[in-house]
Amino acid sequence: MQINDLQVSIGNWHTGLTQSNHLRSFFLMEPVLASSVVTRVYNRMTGSKNPLSFLTIGTGRAKELPDIIYRWPLMGDSEKAIPIISNLGDGGSFPGIGNTTFRVVMAEKWFTLGDVIVPDNSDYPCRVQEYPATNGFGDGFIYTLQLVSADPTAYIPTSLLEAGKEFSKDFNSQEHDHSREGGDTHYATPFMMENYMGTFRKKYEVTGAAHEKVLSIKLMDPESGKTTETWVKYVEWEFWCQFQDEIERALWYGKSNIDNTTTIPTMKGLSGNPIYMSAGVEQQLAPANKQYYTRLTESVIRDFLNNLSYGGTEPGPREYVAFCGRGFMDGFDKAMKSSASNFTLVDSKFITGSGQSMELGGQFTSYVGLNGDRITLKELPLYNNPVRNRQIHPETGLPAESYKATFLNFKMNSKGESNITKVYHKGREMVTTYVEGLYGPYGPKQSGTSATAVDGYEFHAMSECGVMVSDPTDSGQLILSVDSL
Q1: Could you state, in order of their start, the residue ranges of all structural domains in the chain?
Q2: What is the pTM of this model?
Q3: Whole-angstrom distance, CA of residue 83 vs CA of residue 111
Q4: What is the 3-state secondary structure (H, E, C) of the chain?
Q5: Cys staple from 118: which of 12, 87, 122, 157, with CB 3.0 to 4.6 Å?
Q6: Cα angle value 49/312/196 (rounded, 5°)
């Protein structure tokens, strides 16, 4: 890949074994350029490259667990709408007319005598006039209702009593004198969420000849600022950069291979043992919170946030980090500037961590909108990657993925636990080892034992980890509908 006109050679890709001839093919053995310093093209091994990893484990939002299976409870809502199974036809086309009662079958025994309930059109409140009865002809419960109205000619449209329509409770109303009953108290029931950690591995191999080679161009570690001339250090840097990138991709894009009928996947590895795929952030988000757009406007953004607020299980205001590509950031900026915006730019710096001592570099833009909801935009380089994201925007030529934004709420619950958490298997967060042959990481072996007679050595790393979105109802995505452009 040609970076720009200043690049004098194009690198050749290779995988696996690092041999002496690879050094020559990479133009890294010229004798005189010892004083040059090459800064890595990509800012690897920093929070800017892999922001999800930084904002979880880098800020203490990580949890050690005793098993690769992790479960967490999510509390349901204590109020809900109950669907209608059927209308029993009382009153014909005019149910409820003349202050008469009518009956419908609903899916649950949720309402009780005296509850005032409303259909999908709240202009037609009804009171439950009898205790719900078991339906002797099928599923559900029979409710006897009366329209709340002073008009004897009023009735409820039959379209509101069709199967699939719903009723919800407003309140319970009883007689003024000598009443005996009251409305039931409903309790939210927690349900369990479940995910599995993935087992991620990577290795590199170095031959004895390659270990001794010296680079003609010094390489700088972008984090420490230190430089090196040895090939082995370059190999190590490249290894860790790629491994961190791979784990970050798994945390975002990973898809589970476990369904709700089994706990053992059918996919097997070389050993014959099952391979557990971990569901990443995108799979954990509630499908209802994934919204598609063709043109990003302030109205689209506002409506999306309102929908998240309605669907969330906790009251606002909310603070979202919107991980997005450059295409979305540009569209967001234009949408705000072209509108009499309900959002206000509040800062361009994002600080997080204990005592506000941990700062994540990179471009942040924060807005506060309706109801105090705050959005902090953070560029996610992964969404801009044209190698992985090969579906192209027909007008700009950028990856379509670059126009996507994932809104995550990093709220902390009453126990001090983050809504977005990186989890790892106890003792297996990162396991590494050298498999030494005639060479080890520090040079040729002069004595002692080795695991292999190969003229070189291997380095292996393994990590068992995953990500947990504790409340998937309070996060979502805005996704460009490329097919509609």
Answers
A1: 17-74+193-278+422-468, 84-172, 281-419+470-484
A2: 0.71
A3: 12
A4: CCCCCCCCCCCCCCCCEECHHHHHHCCCCCCCCCCCEECCCCCCCCCCCCHHHHHHHHHCCEEEECCCEEEEEEECCCCCCEEEEEECCCCCCCCCHHHCEEEEEECCCCCCCCEEEECCCCCCCEEECCCCEECCCCCCEEEEEEECCCCCCCCCCHHHHCCCCEEEEEEECCCCCCCCCCCCCCCCCEEEEEEECEEEEEEEEEEHHHHCCEEEEEEECCCCCCEEEEHHHHHHHHHHHHHHHHHHHHHHHCCCCCCCCCCCCCCECCCCCECCCCCCHHHHCCHHHEEEECCCCHHHHHHHHHHHHHHCCCCCCCEEEEEECHHHHHHHHHHHHCCCCCCEEEECCCEECHHHCEECCCCEEEEECHHHCEEEEEECHHHHCCCCCCCECCCCCCEHHHHCEEEEECCECCCCCECEEEEEECCCCCEEEEEECCEECCEECCCCCCCCCCCEEEEEEEEEEEEEECCHHHCEEEEECHHHC
A5: 122
A6: 55
From CA 316, how far away is CA 413, in angstroms rounded?
A: 13
Structurally, what CATH architecture does the domain formed by 84-172 represent? Beta Barrel (2.40)
Residue type, 432: T
Neighbouring C-beta atoms of residue 232, cutoff 10 Å: 22
- Tell me: cis bond preceding 444? Omega within 30 of 0 counts: no
CB-based contacts of 163: which residues, under 8 Å, 6+ apart? 83, 84, 85, 86, 87
Does residue 350 contact residue 18 with C-beta atoms inside 8 Å?
no
Residue of 385, 279, 464 lying closest to 50 (CA atoms) = 385
Q: What is the pLDDT along the chain (485 residues), one digit of tens a residue?
A: 433 433 344 445 555 555 555 544 444 444 333 223 333 333 334 446 777 776 776 667 878 888 888 777 665 556 678 899 999 999 999 999 999 999 999 998 889 898 999 999 989 999 999 999 988 778 899 999 999 999 999 999 999 999 999 999 888 888 777 777 776 666 555 567 788 888 999 898 888 877 766 555 566 665 566 766 666 667 777 788 888 888 888 999 988 888 766 678 888 888 999 888 888 999 888 888 899 999 998 888 888 888 787 655 565 677 888 999 999 988 888 887 776 555 665 554 443 433 333 333 344 466 776 667 778 888 899 999 988 888 999 999 999 999 999 999 887 776 777 888 888 899 888 888 999 999 888 888 888 888 988 899 998 999 999 998 888 888 899 999 988 77
